[in-house]
Amino acid sequence: MGNVCSPSFSCDGTISQCLDCSVRQAGYICYLRDNLKDLRRESQKLIEERNDVRIRVIVAEQQQMKRLERVQGWFSRVQDVLYEVDRLTLESNREDAKLCLGGLCTKICKSNYKFGRKVFRTLREVQSLSLEGDFKEVAQPAPVNPVDERPLPTSVVGLQSTFERVWSCVMEDTIGIVGLYGMGGVGKTTLLTQINNKFLVSPNHFDFVIWVVVSKDLQLEKIQECVAEKIGLFNESWSSKNVQEKAQEIFKILSDKKFMLLLDDIWEPVDLAQVGLPIPSPRSTSSKVVFTSRDFEVCGQMEAHRSFKVECLAYEDAWELFEEKVGREIL
């Protein structure tokens, strides 16, 4: 007799997968009520955790801190999942009534299965968000605004062309120190203010734009204080340090930063190194210094790379300004 060969196929794996799938589907239905109960409990815990985190954020923001992006993202995801929990809770009464029929209808079983799967997955998401909500920090110090807007006079008649020349020079890579000189009242401070405010709307690479009024009574510590306030060094311990210690602290911060220092009304040269400022040079102009003075000699003593004389107004500009101030009706 010959051997009878018949093909054989292994279906153990397929059967196992089918059984696992069937068990899982049945579990969505059998444990639906328990999962709904767990979902309500876990969502309430999530609400309490969200409220606690929200209080921490409010307190931090009252201290001028900025909430972390991941905390804001977590708030958004919590809001979405709680909305889904509310929707499932409203739908649960209808599905629970179907469950009481004992699964006599195939359509009812299918509906219970789909609903049970949604409940199960939402429960897992709620639990996951609860774990994510354990934040060590919810906010961080808000970044310092690199530029503080300063008030400009209502009129800048006759200064626009000078401003454009100075601004073009300030933006040059090979120029680090710029001096503006001229007699009192010709508009040097106005020009410096225009430069300061221009950084609010013009793309730039500066980490800090620092404004300091120097005046006739030169005080290095006053300059250091203005710089320290802008770069975040000014605190309770600051006043107990001497000039050299303050200079070291300032230099430590600004040595790897890009800054624009605007010094208004210099009567004598300011030793930038004693203040603690890295001195811009023609080879290293990532930081800049622009100052105003009445005396051209101060520009040389400050080793300015470029100096601009701010002239008195031409006759036409002076008359236009006079008309503007006095008023045409009075004239």
UniProtKB/TrEMBL annotation:
InterPro entries xrefs: NB-ARC (IPR002182), P-loop_NTPase (IPR027417), Plant_NBS-LRR (IPR050905)
TM segment ranges: none
UniProt keywords, alphabetically: Plant defense
Biological processes, Gene Ontology terms: defense response
GO molecular-function terms, A-Z: ADP binding
Pfam families: NB-ARC
Location of the NB-ARC domain: 161-328
SUPFAM superfamilies with a match to the protein in the record: P-loop containing nucleoside triphosphate hydrolases (SSF52540)
PANTHER family: NB-ARC DOMAIN-CONTAINING PROTEIN, NB-ARC DOMAIN-CONTAINING PROTEIN-RELATED
Protein name: NB-ARC domain-containing protein
